[in-house]
Each structure stands twice: as structure tokens, then as C-alpha cells.
């Protein structure tokens, strides 16, 4: 099973990379841009019996390693297709 | 006194730490390999600067799972002294041995510079050789040194006196201009709530000889020696 994990900077935490990209987009003429946040996209392949089992495992992986809850938020999608 | 300096794959400042401890301070210091679990009788463990395991994912995130870090965590839980410098500080935060996290510098640039930091609390094993409010001139060289912690945690840390070093200007004032990386509350170094684990972004091991630009870093190592 494939799990797509999205890790993004926590709201309120300084995100200088996001801000730099936002400024660049604005200077390209995309004046409507009101925010950019840069994160990580991680694909985890798991051998799990069910979607729920994969979900449980990946949640633990996120809490223990893939994200740092002090500075990052995460969400994930389990793809059993 | 016996010291153990950990060498991770990517460590850069392990030899400088050994030089400071052995050649300048006459200490019994040896290298500890990241794959070993034996701390070799060290009374203080140094996690040096540089990089570790490519710093994949986040700085220090992978090093935390190395065999030696299991022993370091046990040693710290028993009250043993641990100091993490730069990447070592990042590893200690990732290992939850210190509060907070270190993120990309506000400027997005790697900074290699000399900074002034103020010693805010001297009653600790890492700062007792300094005077309260003393200003130390130390080098920094990092890309991820912006200290971040939840507001409530910061308040508690400050109440307990865990913030040992802050970036200040030459007059000892915390200013935005004197804060090189955007750290919250100008934090340059913090201890845990038991005051036996300390992490700092500046490099005391690079400031141990007047001939090479200053020896203010000795204050940190002398504090540890005095406290053992």
C-alpha cells in the first residue's frame, strides 16, 4: 500500500523559504498570491493488511520521525489502489 | 576528568573539541564512535558540530537513532553531563533531551561569523565559570540555527532559568540586528530542566586560544570541569 505524507511548517512558525518563494511569485506578476508554505512530500510503501492498519502505522511514523510536531504539521492519504 | 566526544558520520568539529579538551585544557578526552554503545567512562559527553547522517529529513533527526545516542540518553537520564554544539544541539532537540527545535536561519543563508552572547544564568554546570551577564565572543557557522519553541514552553524555560545564552550586541542588549538567525527571544543556548544537558549554536571549541581570535569558549569547558 502506498501512503502519501505531506509535512508542512506549522502555522505561526517562521517559514523563510515560503516567504522567499511568495516574494518571487509576486515579482513575476502573480499579485494575488497571499501565502506560500514549503514542506515535504514523502511516499511510504507499507505492507499492511488494511487501510486502517496502514493509517495507524504511518501516524506513528509521522509522530516519531517523519515530522517534528513542534514545528511541523502533517497529513497523509492512504492509497490502496 | 574523562570526556567522550562522539563522532557521527559527517561530524566536523570532533577534532577541534578534542584539541580544546586535550591540548588546551589537559583533559582526558577520547572519541566515541556512533555505532558503539560504550561511553568509555566519560563524565561528560560532547556531541560536536558539523553534520550527521547527511542531516536527511531534518538536522539531527537521523543521528538520534544511532546506537551511541541510546547510551547518551540513558546517561543523561542518570544525571550525566551532556553538551551539544551546533549539530549536537540539533540532535539533542530531536532526541527530546532538550526542549525546542532548530529551523532554517531567517535569512536562508548559511552564516559564518563571530557573535557576542550573554551568559544569563551562572549557577549551572555549563556556565559557573562565567560572571552573570558576561559577554562571550564566539564563532557561529550554521544554516539551521533559528531556535523555536512553543510560547508556553519558552515562558517556563525562562522562569526556570534554562536559557543560558542569548545573542546580544556589544553592549549586552538583545536587538534584532544582533540576532543572527531569527531565534525566538534571541536564544543561543538552552539547558534541560535538570541542568545536566546543554545545547548551543555557537562553537566554544573554536574559541580556546587568544592567538586564534579569542578564548571565551574556555569558560564553558572550565565550568564543566569545575562542576565535576
Can you walk me through this structure?
The complex is a heterodimer of chains A (81) and B (228). By secondary structure, chain A is α+β, with helices and mostly antiparallel strands. In chain A, 35% of the residues lie in helices and 27% in strands. Chain A is built from 2 helices and 3 strands; from the N terminus they run βαβαβ. The model of chain A has no long low-confidence stretch (mean pLDDT 95). Chain B is 22% helix and 26% strand. Chain B is built from 5 helices and 11 strands, in the order βαββαβαββββαβββα. In chain B, strand 3, helix 2 and strand 4 form a beta-alpha-beta unit. Chain B is globular. The mean pLDDT of chain B is 97.
Gist of the model:
Chain A is α+β, with helices and mostly antiparallel strands and 81 residues long. Chain A has helices at residues 16-27, 51-66, and strands at 2-9, 40-45, 72-79. Chain B starts with a strand and ends with a helix.
The largest interface is: A-B, 11 and 17 residues
Number of DSSP strands of chain B? 11
Shape of chain A: elongated
Q: Helix segment count of chain A?
A: 2
Amino acid at each position: 500500500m502506498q501512503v502519501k505524507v505531506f509535512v508542512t511548517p506549522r502555522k505561526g512558525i517562521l517559514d523563510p523559504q515560503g516567504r522567499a518563494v511568495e516574494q518571487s511569485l509576486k515579482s513575476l506578476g502573480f499579485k494575488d498570491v497571499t501565502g506560500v508554505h514549503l514542506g515535504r512530500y514523502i511516499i511510504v510503501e507499507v505492507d499492511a493488511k488494511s487501510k486502517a492498519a496502514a493509517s495507524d502505522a504511518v501516524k506513528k511514523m509521522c509522530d516519531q520521525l517523519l515530522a517534528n510536531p513542534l514545528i511541523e504539521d502533517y497529513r497523509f492519504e492512504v492509497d490502496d489502489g | 576528568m574523562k570526556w567522550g566526544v562522539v563522532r557521527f558520520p559527517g561530524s566536523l568539529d570532533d577534532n577541534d573539541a578534542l584539541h580544546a579538551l586535550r591540548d588546551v585544557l589537559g583533559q582526558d578526552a577520547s572519541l566515541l564512535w556512533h555505532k558503539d554503545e560504550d561511553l568509555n567512562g566519560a563524565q561528560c559527553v560532547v556531541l560536536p558540530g558539523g553534520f550527521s547522517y547527511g542531516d536527511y529529513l531534518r538536522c539531527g533527526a537521523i543521528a538520534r537513532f544511532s546506537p551511541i545516542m541510546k547510551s547518551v540518553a540513558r546517561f543523561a537520564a542518570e544525571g550525566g553531563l551532556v553538551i551539544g554544539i551546533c549539530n549536537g544541539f540539533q540532535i539533542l532537540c530531536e532526541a527530546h533531551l532538550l526542549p525546542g527545535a532548530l529551523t532554517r536561519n531567517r535569512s536562508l543563508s548559511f552564516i559564518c561569523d563571530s557573535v557576542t552572547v550573554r551568559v544569563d544564568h551562572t549557577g549551572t554546570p555549563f556556565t559557573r565559570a562565567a560572571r552573570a551577564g558576561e559577554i562571550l565572543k564566539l564563532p557561529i557557522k550554521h544554516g539551521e540555527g533559528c531556535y523555536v519553541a512553543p510560547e508556553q514552553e519558552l515562558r517556563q524555560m525562562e522562569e526556570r532559568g534554562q536559557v543560558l545564552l542569548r545573542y546580544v550586541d556589544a553592549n549586552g542588549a538583545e536587538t534584532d540586528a544582533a540576532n543572527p538567525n531569527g531565534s525566538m527571544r534571541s536564544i543561543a543556548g538552552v539547558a534541560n530542566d535538570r541542568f545536566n544537558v546543554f545545547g548551543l549554536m555557537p562553537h566554544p571549541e573554536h574559541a580556546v586560544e587568544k592567538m586564534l581570535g579569542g578564548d571565551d569558549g574556555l569558560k564553558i569547558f572550565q565550568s564543566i570541569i569545575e562542576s565535576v
